[in-house]
Structures are given as C-alpha cells and as structure tokens.
Write a structure and sequence with these properties.
The chain is an alpha/beta fold. It is about 40% helix and about 15% strand. It has helices spanning about 20-25, 50, 75-80, 95, 105-115, 135-145, 165-180, 195-200, 215-220, 225-240, and strands at about 10-15, 40, 40-45, 55-60, 155, 185-190, 200-205, 210-215. The model is unreliable at about 85-100 and about 245-250 (pLDDT under 50).
Length: about 250
Amino acid sequence: MRCSPGQFVVVIGSNGSGKSTLLNLVAGTLRLGAGRIHLGGRPLHHLKDHQRARWIGRVMQNPLEGTCPELTVAENLRLAERRNRPTLLAGGFLLGALGGIHPNGADRRRYRELLGDLGLPLADRLDEPVGQLSGGQRQTLSLVMATLGSPNLLLLDEHTAALDPRAEATVMALTDRLIRQFGTTTLMVTHSLEQALGHGDRLVMLHEGRLIGDWNAAEREQLDPPALRAMYGAAIVSSQSSSAPDGSSAP
C-alpha cells in the first residue's frame, strides 16, 4: 500500500484483519517476513523500532503507554522532542536521553505556548507529574508528543478506544488539527465506523491482511455504516467459502 505525502489514511477491518499488525510492521515492533517498507524513499525494513522512531510518531490505544508517569508534563515533552536526536539511538531510547530531559526556561515557554495555542489546559500544568492526569489528558499529551519534531509518519492505533465519549471527541478534534497543522502523513486504525467516515482523506479496509477496499474522500461520502458492515460480512463469507475443506461453499 502506498501513501502520498501528507495523506491522512484511516484503516478499518474486522478483528484479526491485520490492522494493528500493519502498524507494528511499519513501526518495527514486528519484523517483516517478506517485502519492503520505505518512508520518503528511505528503506526502513532493516532498522529496529527505536531507530525508526526518529521519523515515526505513534500513539497507542492505552493512554498509559505513551507517557512516563513519574516525569512532569514538561519533561515528557522534552523527552519526545529529543526523539529524533542521534543520542537517543545509542544504548536505547531512555538511556540516551537521560542527560537532557530537564527543560530549561526557553523550553518551558515554548511548551506553554504550544499547548496554549492548541487550547489545552495542560499549558498551566507543566510541572505536574503525568501520572496525576486523567486518561484523556494523558492521551492528549501522547498525541502532542508524537507530533513534536515533525515526524515523517504518524501511527494512531485505536488511540481513542479507551476513552469516554467526551475525551474521544477532544482527542479526535486535536488529531485533525495537528495533522492539518503539520501536514504529517498519518495511518489511523479504528473500530469506529463513525470515525472512519468522518475523518481523514482516504479510507482503506483490510481483511486477513489483504486490502479489500480503498476510497478517497469523495468516494467515502457515498458510504455509510450499514454499507461498511455489509462489506465486512461479504468478506467473511467469501473467506469461509474459499477455506471449506471440500472446496465447496461453506454453510
């Protein structure tokens, strides 16, 4: 699958369709068994995940996974900002960064302005340990951290699935704003058909690791949740039929 620079691609599919596996292969969490992965002409398939982190930002489903709870909001932002520094790649992410996670006055002013411009109340909580934030606030911070340093690619792995509806709306609004502001190429996995139909400029559907649907923004306007569910069902029936032991259609 090819993505154009700056494209916001939403990835949907039934459970086990390969959505998270796709992101893990791109991020380097899983090793590629065949094929190649390129980002902006740069081959990535031979690099480890912490090496790819120089160019890839990622937000996980669990709000607890994207931040360091013992560090303050400002220190988390500083750590994320240093992601693309070569020192992070020598000896591991955290060890390489320990000498520079404490923000100075200029850093703090920059973070306060960034969060304030985004309309986030975290601008007034820079010295608060992240472990004291709510799940929605931590996921908001994770999203901001993932876009610091202008990564070439942003991976969003069901990043609102663990949030309540109000926090989900806040995080999705921030997602749209950050992607528009930085023009970052983005892959977003979601189970929400409403999100799939309301965000991004390209929608793709996976089933058993195969691409079975690909729509641009205009084509997506002709779809609705029942139509997408019908496509899921048809794909499942087709795969069951093709895997019937005697070659006949599965019941």
